[in-house]
Amino acid sequence: MKTSKAQQEETRTRILAAAVALMSQEGYDAVTMKDIARAAGIGDATVYKYFATKERLVLGYFDLAAQRAVADAQASAGWFDDYDLHARLQRLTDALLERLAPDRAFVEIARALLQKSPLLLLGDQLQARELLRDEVQGYLQAAVDAGELPASDFLRPLAGLYVDFCYGVVAYWLHDESAEGADTTRLVDQVLGVLVALLKAGVPDRLVQLGGFLLRSQLATLFTASSGVSQRRARPDRTLRDRTLRERTSGADAGPKASSAVGD
């Protein structure tokens, strides 16, 4: 019997919930895919239809957390009408931490795994990265359209920097012992405030322009230096040819005189 998309999503969620519970109690290495399948109430082989490996299952947890965080943020009252860029980024970051908070022990285990295998964060394996980047790029474009930010050719890379910022925030949050993560909340608010101020001033684009200018200047200097070396290397050859030509000319002039002296 073919399962519906809703049933597949429900099964996927149960698998992730089972993995979180087991790994939080017993650790990543002690839990097998068979353990997770049985805890989720599915067949041993069925779990592999959803997640090929334990590593992919861990990434799937963050994919789901990011998906739900984006939905939570978008559901905030007056989302696009009343929130400026700072508030939108703050709300999205808060929503992500709120989704991770109940599974703090598992997030710590997952972070340790990603530190050992950083390549898991590359490519298209971590869908959460692309999801968050797309969402934030939309925020940036909306801010440009509203005149809050100057136009920029680098909205996509800037949105990617937000995702990297989230990695740092999660790492800080995991070690935050303040009441209800108050220190993390203040950190996020202050850092985002600085970042938005830099964006409003057009600093990222100016830095790219400065970098392009410096690169062009260095290339011009390099080419000029290379040209000078080539000229210096060529000059001895011309000097040698000139000296040889003079010697031949002198020899030709001395020839008749020497012959005349012999005749006398």
Textual characterization of the structure:
- Helix 1 (5-26) crosses helix 4, helix 4 crosses helix 6 (85-100) and helix 6 (85-100) packs antiparallel against helix 10.
- The protein is mostly helical and 264 residues long.
- It is extended and about 105 Å long.
- It has helices at 5-26, 33-40, 47-50, 54-74, 79-82, 85-100, 104-116, 127-145, 155-174, 182-200, 203-263.
- Helix content is 78%, strand content 0%.
- Residues 258-264 have low confidence and may be disordered.
Task: Describe what is shown at a glance.
The chain has 264 residues and is mainly α. Helix 1 crosses helix 4.
What does the secondary structure layout of this molecule look like, with pairings?
Layout: H1 5-26, H2 33-40, H3 47-50, H4 54-74, H5 79-82, H6 85-100, H7 104-116, H8 127-145, H9 155-174, H10 182-200, H11 203-263
Helix pairs in contact: 1-2, 1-4, 4-6, 4-8, 6-10, 8-9
